[in-house]
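[Discussion] Sanity-checking designs against the backbone

I'm trying to build intuition for which residues belong where. Below is a structure token string of 926 positions. I'd appreciate it if someone posts a full sequence so I can compare it with mine line by line.
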């Protein structure tokens, strides 16, 4: 039986390849995800280890609690007098002091040099201690006072050389500095899109507003002293605001935030690989079911010759195992290409990632192969079990079919129960309080999985009515797309041929361009008229009484519609693959619309001013000097900034914010307790809380509580007001205090946003005045309220576009599923197609019949998928206050059109294959 199974696979190479495509694509995304994230992790590890080369220990600032690395909460600096104390220790051989921060390099165009979302790093360098320098000098010299060295990537892309002058902006206004040299980051081949700027220590302290302060001291132990002895000696003299770690521990600490992000990023991408595999499992199961149905007489002959049911089962499972293994191996190595492509895509988008070469670990091989084989085997179990039910007598019967299973009568009920259980799990995960994060995610994942499986099984009962309803839609959608697509294809032809490629002088070629532009609308009208005329003349209510030699288009299309209803289970299974992809795409689009609309409403409710000042990338915090500059602009009535940071209260780390006394003028609060005047009365111990946080901890107006800041100072705060944030969110943290109190307890405070009210409101003169004031801060920009809403919404839309691209893979898998089903049905209906050709069906009409069947299948999957996606989005919107339920009508129309296009493309190859059948040979096909 093993030899029989392998020969069977070799005899059906095309069918096997089509069946395996879903697994290949899914495994390739899994493999590519691991290769991509492992490569990035390896590059980051090299960067962090390079930062501490020749170092035995590192002294850094110490926060009172762990803070997230969002740029708003920084470790406090320590006094630079500590350097002399450390150097005097007998265990210390060499010590080097450093400060660091964010530095914007300003290009010749006056704009900040930013490569996507990559960081802009600045730090001090010590030319006299090259063993501690992470930068390697490539050209020029190390910097002197008020000079800078920059990275070679920035110099090459922006046209700078040693000796040129460049703008540098840190905590204050732009300063012009001479470029003394070009550097690279140690031995790391690429640090992505980060910009690098190096200064002497005094210059860096001035730029970062850290006079007499240090961020780090790197230590090298004296000969004969172990790193641990060095650490123990240093720890005895450290102030409370500093701590010492070994070089390895400090590198691991620096990499912690990056590691957490990469872990999330890996999981995020693997989810979409799992979705593609899940969709691919439907393709495999459907393909094997069709193949087994076509091989009924083959299996019956085996049973007649003495093969047992178990041997037949093992034969089919072995075929699936070999198919899955080959597909997994192909997907594994295709993942390398996907990882390389992702690196290039990120580079093209300006988000260059660190890369030291692709990393292909053993874990990637094991996981990719195991997942691919396991998914294929699980998908083959039901078709394999069906194969064992073929009776020996079927070998002598013409057109024998597999007998239905004993549980077939309960298929609809079982599908409905699976769907109900899935919905119940999703509802429980969303609305039951007290669930851990793991249990919540498990309930949601299993629930959605059961919903998809249940709907895929139940869809067979919906196929007949949906196919009938989709029939006219399929007819006219194909017609409309044909009318629209043909002139679009002709437009480049005319413009290029007559304009660019045409012979003659320039006026003649320009005339060709104009002629092409004029002829295309005329061509559009002609094609539309011809198509409508053809439609009207070929529309027949039923089959003609006598065949005139050539069948009309109406019967050919009618047969396509009937074929989609002939086997509801097959059509439903094929449509299910597209259903899953479109359900997820619809859910994402609906949630995206539901996030953007409440956010815009929240801005309108909170922001009562005229302008907002934000970073060029819309999310980075800005130094207070930016707000001070715009506050001095003539005509500014009020300017209020929102500081951002982290605090700790009631044993948990929370986001905190700070506002000044101008806040009531430009910001509105929905007060539960207190009033706008509460913002002016915060003083040194006042706090404003959001209502959820106050309720969680039993706080009310006048209540007192303690909050620890990152410097370790505990503030005793009194509740001066409680507000209800709008559904779309707000820029305020759980606790909001006064700006002076915040600045006194948080090092290097930064503004999240600055809001302004100006005389005359939004005018061209006011906008120009603000832009002039911000010319010395190129990383900041002034926006009107509408511009601010649009810019902030763009980040959500960018994320949605990423999700659409990733979900497109599942749609691509479903496209191959439709292709596979159509190709297999062409094999199955070979004699039928031969008969139709014999009685007059033309090749064009065969193609139209197959295409019509494909579009109907795609429309069924689209309709169920869109409705299912809306339902899932409705459940999520009902649970999350930040999201409202908003139907993205325009996008849903696009999804429906895409479904028709998928159906048309999926039918191209099967239709051509069916049209090329020889009628005489087809009539003799067994």
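Best answer:
Here's mine. Compare freely.
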């Amino acid at each position: 039986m093993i030899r029989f199974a392998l020969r069977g696979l070799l005899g059906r190479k095309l069918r096997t390849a089509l069946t395996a495509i879903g697994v290949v694509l899914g495994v390739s995304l899994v493999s590519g995800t691991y290769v991509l994230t492992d490569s990035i992790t390896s590059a980051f590890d090299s960067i962090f280890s390079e930062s501490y080369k020749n170092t035995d220990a590192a002294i850094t600032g110490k926060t009172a609690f762990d803070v997230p690395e969002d740029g708003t909460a920084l470790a406090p600096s320590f006094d630079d007098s500590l350097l002399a104390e450390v150097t005097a220790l007998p265990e210390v051989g060499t010590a080097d002091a450093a400060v660091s921060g964010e530095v914007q390099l300003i290009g010749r165009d006056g704009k900040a040099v930013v490569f996507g979302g990559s960081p802009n790093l600045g730090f001090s360098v010590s030319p006299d201690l090259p063993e501690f320098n992470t930068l390697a000098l490539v050209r020029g010299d190390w910097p002197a006072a008020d000079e800078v060295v920059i990275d070679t990537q920035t110099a090459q892309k922006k046209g700078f050389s040693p000796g040129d002058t460049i703008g540098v902006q840190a905590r204050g206004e732009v300063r012009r500095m001479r470029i003394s040299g070009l550097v690279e980051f140690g031995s790391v081949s690429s640090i992505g899109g980060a910009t690098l700027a190096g200064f002497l220590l005094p210059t860096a302290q001035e730029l970062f507003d850290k006079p007499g302060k240090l961020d780090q001291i790197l230590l090298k132990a004296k000969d004969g002293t172990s790193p641990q002895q060095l650490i123990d000696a240093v720890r005895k003299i450290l102030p409370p605001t500093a701590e010492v770690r070994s070089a390895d521990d400090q590198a691991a600490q620096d990499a912690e935030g990056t590691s957490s992000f990469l872990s999330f990023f890996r999981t995020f991408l693997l989810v979409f690989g799992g979705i593609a595999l899940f969709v691919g499992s439907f393709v495999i199961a459907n393909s094997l079911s069709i193949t087994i149905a076509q091989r009924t007489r083959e299996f019956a002959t085996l049973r007649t010759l003495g093969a047992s049911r178990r041997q037949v089962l093992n034969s089919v499972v072995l075929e699936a195992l070999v198919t899955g293994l080959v597909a997994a191996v192909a997907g594994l190595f295709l993942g390398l290409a996907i990882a390389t492509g992702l690196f290039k895509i990120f580079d093209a988008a300006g988000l260059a990632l660190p890369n030291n070469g692709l990393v292909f670990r053993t874990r990637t091989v094991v996981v990719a192969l195991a997942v691919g084989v396991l998914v294929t085997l699980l998908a083959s179990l039901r078709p394999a079990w069906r194969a064992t039910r073929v009776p020996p007598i079927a070998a002598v019967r013409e057109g024998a079919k597999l007998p239905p299973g004993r549980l077939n009568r309960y298929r609809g009920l079982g599908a409905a129960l699976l769907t109900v259980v899935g919905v119940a799990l999703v509802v429980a995960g969303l609305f039951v309080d007290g669930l851990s994060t793991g249990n919540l995610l498990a309930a949601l994942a299993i629930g959605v999985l059961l919903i998809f499986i249940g709907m895929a099984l139940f869809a067979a009962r919906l196929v007949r009515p949906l196919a009938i309803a989709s029939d006219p839609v399929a007819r006219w959608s194909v017609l409309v797309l044909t009318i629209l697509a043909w002139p679009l294809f002709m437009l480049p032809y005319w413009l290029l041929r007559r304009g660019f490629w045409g012979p003659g002088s320039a006026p003649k070629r320009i005339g060709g361009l104009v002629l092409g532009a004029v002829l295309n609308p005329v061509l559009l009208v002609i094609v539309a008229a011809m198509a409508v005329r053809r439609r009207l003349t070929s529309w027949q209510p039923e089959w003609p009484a006598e065949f005139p030699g050539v069948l009309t288009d109406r019967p050919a299309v009618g047969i396509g519609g009937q074929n989609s209803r002939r086997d509801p289970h097959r059509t439903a299974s094929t449509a299910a693959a597209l259903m899953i992809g479109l359900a997820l795409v619809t859910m994402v689009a609906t949630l995206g619309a539901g996030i953007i609309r409440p956010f815009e409403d929240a801005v309108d409710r909170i922001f009562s001013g005229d302008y907002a000042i934000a970073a060029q990338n819309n999310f980075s915090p800005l130094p207070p000097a930016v707000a001070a500059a715009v506050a001095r602009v003539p005509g500014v009535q009020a300017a209020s900034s929102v500081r951002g940071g982290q605090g700790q209260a009631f044993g948990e780390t929370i986001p905190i914010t700070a506002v000044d006394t101008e806040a009531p003028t430009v910001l509105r609060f929905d007060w539960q307790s207190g009033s706008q005047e509460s913002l002016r009365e915060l003083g040194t111990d006042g706090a404003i809380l959001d209502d959820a946080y106050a309720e969680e901890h039993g706080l009310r107006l006048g209540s007192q509580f303690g909050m620890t800041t990152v410097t370790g100072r505990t503030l005793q705060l009194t509740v001066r007001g409680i507000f209800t944030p709008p559904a779309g969110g707000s820029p305020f943290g759980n606790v909001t205090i006064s700006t002076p109190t915040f600045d006194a307890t948080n090092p290097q405070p930064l503004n999240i946003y600055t809001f302004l009210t100006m005389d005359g409101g939004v005018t061209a003169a006011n906008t120009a005045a603000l832009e002039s004031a911000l010319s010395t801060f190129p990383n900041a920009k002034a926006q009107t309220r509408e511009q601010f809403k649009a810019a902030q919404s763009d980040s959500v839309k960018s994320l949605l576009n990423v999700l659409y691209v990733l979900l497109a893979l599942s749609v691509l898998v479903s496209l191959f599923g439709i292709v596979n089903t159509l190709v297999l049905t062409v094999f199955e209906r070979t004699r039928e197609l031969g008969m139709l050709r014999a009685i007059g069906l033309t090749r064009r009409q065969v193609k139209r019949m197959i295409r019509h069947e494909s579009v109907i299948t795609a429309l069924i999957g689209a309709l169920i998928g869109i409705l299912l996606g809306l339902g899932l989005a409705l459940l999520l919107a009902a649970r999350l206050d930040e999201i409202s339920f908003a139907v993205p009508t325009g996008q849903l129309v696009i999804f429906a059109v895409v479904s028709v296009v998928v159906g048309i493309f999926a039918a191209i190859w099967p239709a051509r294959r069916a049209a090329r059948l020889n009628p005489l040979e087809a009539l003799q096909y067994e």
